[in-house]
Amino acid sequence: xxxxxxxxxxxxxxxxxxxxxxxxxxxxxxxxxxxxxxxxxxxxxxxxxxxxxxxxxxxxxxxxxxxxxxxxxxxxxxxxxxxxxxxxxxxxxxxxxxxxxxxxxxxxxxxxxxxxxxxxxxxxxxxxxxxxxxxxxxxxxxxxxxxxxxxxxxxxxxxxxxxxxxxxxxxxxxxxxxxxxxxxxxxxxxxxxxxxxxxxxxxxxxxxxxxxxxxxxxxxxxxxxxxxxxxxxxxxxxxxxxxxxxxxxxxxxxxxxxxxxxxxxxxxxxxxxxxxxxxxxxxxxxxxxxxxxxxxxxxxxxxxxxxxxxxxxxxxxxxxxxxxxxx
Length: 327
Hints:
Blueprint: E1 16-17, H1 19-23, H2 27-39, E2 51-55, E3 58-67, E4 70-78, H3 82-85, E5 90-98, E6 104-109, H4 110-129, E7 135-140, H5 144-156, E8 159-165, H6 169-183, E9 187-189, E10 200-203, E11 222-225, H7 238-243, E12 245-248, H8 251-257, H9 259-266, E13 276-277, H10 278-282, E14 294-297, H11 302-321
Helix pairs in contact: 2-4, 2-11, 4-5, 4-11, 5-6
C-alpha cells in the first residue's frame, strides 16, 4: 500500500473524489490496506483522540491522523433526526494531505469513505478471528453499514447464508432482496432464534441498549459491533463481553468511547487488561481463543480513514495515468 508521495500537489486545484471514485476501490483491496498498515507496524495508540463538539442538531467530529506518506483530517456530522428528513445520519468529508509538505492532495466524500473503511476494518478483524468458511451470518440493522458488512464478508471471507434482523421489517426485507440480487446468496428476514446457528454476528444499528442476550448466541461465534462511538450506548450484553475474547482497535480509545466496553467494565464484567488490540491479533502477538466467543468492538479511528483514503487516492490517480493500483 506504500505507493510513494503524490507528485506536485501544491500548485494544482485539490480534486474532489466522489462516491463513485471511492467505490472504485473494492472491499478486498480496502481490507488488504488495513491489514498491511497494521502488519507494517502502525502505532494505533499514537493516533490523536477524536474531538466531539455538541451542536443543536447533533454533534460534530474532527478526526486527524497520519499514516506513512499521508495525513488526513475527517470532518463529520452526526444528526440523529436526519433519517426522518430523508438525509444521511452521518455526513462529512476527508481532507487528504501529503505528509511531507502538508499540502492537500484530495477532498474525499466522507459518507462513501466511511461506508468502505468500517466494513474493511471489521473484516480485517474477522479474518484473523477465524470464522467457519463459508460463514452463516446474522446482521442486525438494514442500513448502509449492514449492507457493506455483508458485501465485504462475502467478498473476503465467504458467506453461506445471511439472516437480517431489523427494527423496521420493510427495511429488513429490502436488504434481504438486495443481498439475494447482488450477491446471489441465500438470505431472509429472521429473529433472535437464528443466533443459535450464526458463525458471525454483525451489529450495525443505532440501538442504545443490547440487541440480544449473551445466552442467545452460539458458543464460539464471532461478533462485530460498529453501531456507536458513544460511551453510554451499547449494542452488546455485558455478559457477552464477560465471557468473550474482546478485541478493540485501541484499548485506551475503547475505554473512552466504546459504550459496550465502558458499561461492561462499570458493571465489573470486563477488566481493562483483558482488552486485546487488533494489531496484536493481526501480528500474531496474541493468540485467538477459538474456544469462546470473539467480539470485535469498533468505534472508528482516524488512522483507518487515512489508510483507506490513501488507497482511494492512489486508485483515482492510477486511473488518471492509466496505472492500475487497486488490489
